[in-house]
Write a structure and sequence with these properties.
Length: about 250
């Protein structure tokens, strides 16, 4: 063992890597419970649970490397992105868990959150009104009825591991549950619009691209203030603010 790697850390949770073991510390035990339950049900490769001692969950590392991260070019091939799309489709086609996940927030809840965040982004001076207003109009296309699916809820590309053109593992299931399948697809391609065609080649062409694009705007608008409050930089090149600017 060469040392301890801090994978992610903020006021709500932290993930450490110790050799081939990930230690997840979460202030909300319900998130850990949901993660363990979701991994037991998910029909895709997931880490193995080693032990649980609240507030810590120990899981195995998964082989391979991630497709990349937000704000940086992807190292994954088109075939790897398509394989990820196929794995996501397998997840979405599985019977959904009995609980709502992060992607399962109601239209009314999202509408209220969108209004609150847009107002705060403008009044605080974080973003210009025209940028916020344009993306709010785009985001509203995501506020429509959806059929419940088994969703990951936080399907960032850093959470999907591949080896060559095969998916070897999907991690971080604490936000999983019933939700909008297109929210997962949008999170996965967020900031990597150039790979949307590759993902949908594996997932299936029936996904509504306009709704996926709407979710790019919605996700960015809803998360910018949270990111800043937790020590992340949504203004970094290729990240959330650039995603909003690209909609113009």
């Amino acid at each position: 063992m060469e040392g301890i790697e801090v994978v992610v850390a903020h006021a709500e949770r932290a993930t450490l890597r110790v050799g081939d073991v990930f230690l997840k510390v979460d202030t909300d035990q319900a998130r850990i419970d949901a993660e363990v339950a979701a991994m037991a049900l998910a029909p895709v490769p997931v880490p193995r649970v080693l032990w649980r001692r609240p507030p810590v969950l120990a899981i195995t590392a998964v082989p391979g490397t991630t497709l990349g991260r937000l704000g940086a070019p992807s190292t994954g091939s088109p075939a790897a992105w398509a394989a990820a799309g196929a794995a996501i489709r397998k997840l979405h086609d599985a019977p959904p868990p009995p609980w709502l996940g992060q992607a399962g927030r109601s239209i009314d809840t999202l509408t209220a959150l969108l209004a609150e965040e847009c107002a705060a982004l403008v009044t605080s001076g974080l973003l210009p009104a025209d940028l916020v207003d344009r993306n709010r109009r785009i985001a509203e296309a995501a506020l429509r009825p959806w059929t419940p699916a088994f969703t990951h809820g936080d399907l960032q590309i850093a959470h999907v591991f591949v080896d060559g053109d095969q998916v070897t593992g999907i991690i971080d299931w604490s936000e999983a549950g019933q939700g909008d399948a297109l929210a997962d697809l949008a999170t996965f391609t967020h900031g990597h619009e150039e790979h949307l065609d590759d993902v949908l080649a594996g997932y299936g062409a029936d996904a509504d691209r306009d709704v996926i694009r709407a979710w790019w705007s919605l996700r960015s608008l809803l998360i910018i203030r949270w990111l800043i409050a937790h020590g992340f930089d949504p203004f970094a090149p290729g990240c959330e603010v650039d995603v909003l600017r690209s909609r113009l």
